[in-house]
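User: I'm new to structure prediction. If I give you an amino acid sequence, what do you actually give back? Let's try with this one:
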Amino acid sequence: MKSFKQQCIELRKKDHTLNEIVQITGRSKTTVYFHIRNIPLSKQKRKKISEATRWRALRVAAARKGKALRPFKPFQSWTPELVLLVSHLMFDGEITKSKCRYHNRSAALIKRVEDLMQLVYDYKGTKNTDTTSGVVTVSFHNVELETFLKSKSKELLKNIHVFSRSKQTEFLRAFFDDEGCMDVRLNKSLRRIRGYQNDQEILKLVKLLLKNFDIESKLRKPNEVVISGKENLRKFQKEINFSKGVRLNPNRTNSIWKKDIEKRELLDIAIRSYQI
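Assistant: Good question. You get back a string of structure tokens that encode the predicted 3D arrangement of the chain. For your 276 residues, that looks like this:
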């Protein structure tokens, strides 16, 4: 049976560091060091340790200065796709210190945000799923990217009302995909689109943008915008609509339909029911 001294020497000759040998043997640093102090690490190993130490120092320094080591692609001019990306991050996401996150049950919307993020960031996000709700969160950790997108979100809210029609369409589509639902109860003659948002200024902005498409809506307390009426629903379907793949949550306790159905399909059912 090998002595403890022999074990330490053999591990050192295999280029293990002091900390690694301590972890393997379960003995104290002082005891291990006594046996390996005259056996140097290889040049390659020392270089690897030096690079790792330098990388950790850079990350710490970058975090303190609000800078990220991974570059991103800033933009000046808005495209419909960039409007869609930033809108999603505002409505069903977060742009907070050091990270951007997006939460949704829809696989289609999660993939959309992941794909759109490639416009500004070449690195994949990390995904986590809440097993209880089925909500997926995709996160992108980058201090500078977060700072940039936060400023762009403010710019978007300030200027979207004067942007082109195509950009306003994407803003509204993101809002209703993330925050909207179809309330269709034909037995009560209810056919309406509802959008929820705690920020009253955003609700007012949504109402204003809908007006640009000749779609009438109402703001209802405490936190929703409502579209109803045959012509308004038709115009919404033609000009904006819900995205393909965005579905109802049949597991919600207050779900009326209790089945897996796309919101756009339910909108179509609501519109066609007027003809009966």
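You can read the tokens as a compact description of the fold. Here is one thing that stands out. The two ends are 89 Å apart (CA to CA).
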